[in-house]
Protein: Threonine aldolase
Organism: Paeniglutamicibacter kerguelensis
Amino acid sequence: MTSSLHDSSVRGFASDNYSGVHPEVLAALAEANGGHQVSYGEDQYTQRLGEVVNGHFGPEATIFPVFNGTGANVTALQSLLPRWGAVICATTAHINCDENGAPERVGGMKLLSVPTPDGKLTPELIDREAWGWGDEHRAQPLAVSLTQSTELGTLYTLEELRAITAHAHSLGMRVHMDGARISNAAAALGVGLGEMTTGTGIDILSLGGTKNGIMFGEGIVTLSPGPADSMKYLRKMNMQLASKMRFISAQLLALYDGDLWLDSAAHANAMAAKLSAAVAQVDGVELVYPTQANGVFAALPNAAADALRERFRFYDWDRAAGQVRWMCSFDTTEADVDAFVAALREEMSALQG
């Protein structure tokens, strides 16, 4: 007999990557494990995934399954740029803060980051770095990267996305969307995945899966002519080509061939809304950004945060400002939220004496 390696009764609020695998995804993996399938994407699961992606994003869309989100972002951006190209992004963007220089070192591109008040770019903010074309002394700004939902938990509206893509395209730039949490954004806005991407002029998408209940894997979805031509070579060169691709595709199929993506994301969003509403009533705790998807950002004394962290895992967002981030997942329960808020109240009361 072996002992349990974890306590499944306690769920943290550090990241939606902490959650397990959705039972329907596990079942899909088990089903895909039977028999032999052609390798490197010629299997029936990957072929079916392509059909599902066409249903969501349109007949011109092509999906390229990859291992992880950093690989998806770097490879997608490479397909938009020559070696002298640069990407305009928000300062808070994942590619700028959390990918350890992979866009620069592996992708060979320069990031031109722009400070934003809420994690969102605008045409005016893009223009701060959208200049210098033809100047050999400056990396050429040829792509814009957006995150939906953003790293601050905020959302671009469809109108904002259309304005950005129209502006970028008018300047000869193409637009990438980091959609690690695209399901949460679509659920919150009440729109389809294609309506938010193909319909707004996005050129290429990093399609999330891991943060919404799959074990591993993401997808790169090309939405406009051009990027797909180089993707098969870039994916291999970047060590993102899976030989047993059916196991990535089967998971993405379980998520997107039906409403599992939507149901799971909507539940995570609802738990974040419940957490946010409760936190707003705790004396001494202040919400920093509006809760629009599945993330809650709050400010509280570091001493209270540290004490609370002994019971629930979560991350500092800005230690100097006393800001923390709390994330909800597809498997977060109302009881999890209630227990967390009760502990938060205890720690704040103890600190206030």
